[in-house]
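TASK: fixed-backbone design
INPUT:
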């Protein structure tokens, strides 16, 4: 049933986006736009931004608007740099902006500057502050709930009052608190949260340092599970656990379905990840940006409204994340064309792939 519901959802989203494109054609607005969409992504520390989001957004903008140009910048996790990049795009007169904000408060003035110049801003993946025109993301509370539920399952009998370390995301990101709230709602009253850390920049090395400190403080035998907010954090956690010669490894969660994380899941080092079908997110953001650049409204594109600390009733699309474990890689990531079996199953991992049914 899960697979059938997902296929129906994908079809509906494709239909909505196709309808939007058809509407633009009927109005005679496609084909000679000469518009520029600014794309501001937050970092290279998380592989998805450069490997998935950027090319998919660029591709979809071109499909919707062949004469449109995409102007790109990556902030490298620095809010000041992102503010300069965004202000530069405003000065150069972009038609619309897709902003994956590093720090919502630090970029609020730039969002207001864009609004003063009549440049609409689509908040992408993270909810920005200021007068944004639209928001596209995945339901962060559900991401956290999926991680919490999977961790309990992975802990088995130890889920009854077991000890958990929480490795949360960067506190400047609004998504970090969203994920943490969802996971704590599942874990509370079931396990003991022994330590909880914020991971600056979502960086692997910072997660490694925090996990090493937790092992030193708690001892290797007290940690029954680790709630890692994403796959970059999970990589640091697992490296620290292995350095401490902890065996077997406790279950470790993740998010983003990075290829290295999927391989760790096959190998049995990471228990799960959360797959967020980036194509749907990028297509929704591109459709919003092109519509706004053309001066159209978003009524046909959005599914709900959300509130920010500064703006009420922002038109939004919140997509549904999917938990992935070793048993479900084939019917999620491989089926959707995210990775091929050959990409996942290196020669070293071939026996492990065979054991979980990942065969050609």
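OUTPUT:
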């Amino acid at each position: 049933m899960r697979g059938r519901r997902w296929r129906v959802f994908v079809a509906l989203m494709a239909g909505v986006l196709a309808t939007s494109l058809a509407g633009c054609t009927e109005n005679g607005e496609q084909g000679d736009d000469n518009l520029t969409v600014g794309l501001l992504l937050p970092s290279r520390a998380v592989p998805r931004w450069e490997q998935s989001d950027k090319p998919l957004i660029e591709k979809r903008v071109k499909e919707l608007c062949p004469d449109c140009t995409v102007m790109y910048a990556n902030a490298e996790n620095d809010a000041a740099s992102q503010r300069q990049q965004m202000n530069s795009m405003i000065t150069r007169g972009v038609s619309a902006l897709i902003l994956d904000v590093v720090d919502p408060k630090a970029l609020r003035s730039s969002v207001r500057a864009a609004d003063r110049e009549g440049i609409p801003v689509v908040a992408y993946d993270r909810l920005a502050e200021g007068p944004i025109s639209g928001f596209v993301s995945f339901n962060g509370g559900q991401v956290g709930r999926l991680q919490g539920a999977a961790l309990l399952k992975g802990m088995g009998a130890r889920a009854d009052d077991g000890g958990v370390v929480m490795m949360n995301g960067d506190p400047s990101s609004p998504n970090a608190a969203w994920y943490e709230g969802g996971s704590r709602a599942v874990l509370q009253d079931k396990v003991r949260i022994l330590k909880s850390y914020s991971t600056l920049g979502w960086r692997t090395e910072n997660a490694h340092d925090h996990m090493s400190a937790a092992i030193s403080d708690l001892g290797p035998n007290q940690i029954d599970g680790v709630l890692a907010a994403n796959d970059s954090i999970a990589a640091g956690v697992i490296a620290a656990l292995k350095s401490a010669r902890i065996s077997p490894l406790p279950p470790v969660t993740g998010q983003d379905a990075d290829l290295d994380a999927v391989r760790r899941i096959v190998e049995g080092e990471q228990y799960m990840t959360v797959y967020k079908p980036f194509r749907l997110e990028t297509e929704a953001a591109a459709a919003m940006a092109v519509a706004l650049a053309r001066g159209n409204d978003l009524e046909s594109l959005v599914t709900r409204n959300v509130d920010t600390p500064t703006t009420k009733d922002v038109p939004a699309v919140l997509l549904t994340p999917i938990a992935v474990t070793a048993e479900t890689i084939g019917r999620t990531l491989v089926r959707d064309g995210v990775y091929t079996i050959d990409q996942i199953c290196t020669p070293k991992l071939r026996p492990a792939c065979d054991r979980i049914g990942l065969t050609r």
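COMMENT: The chain is about 45% helix and 15% strand.
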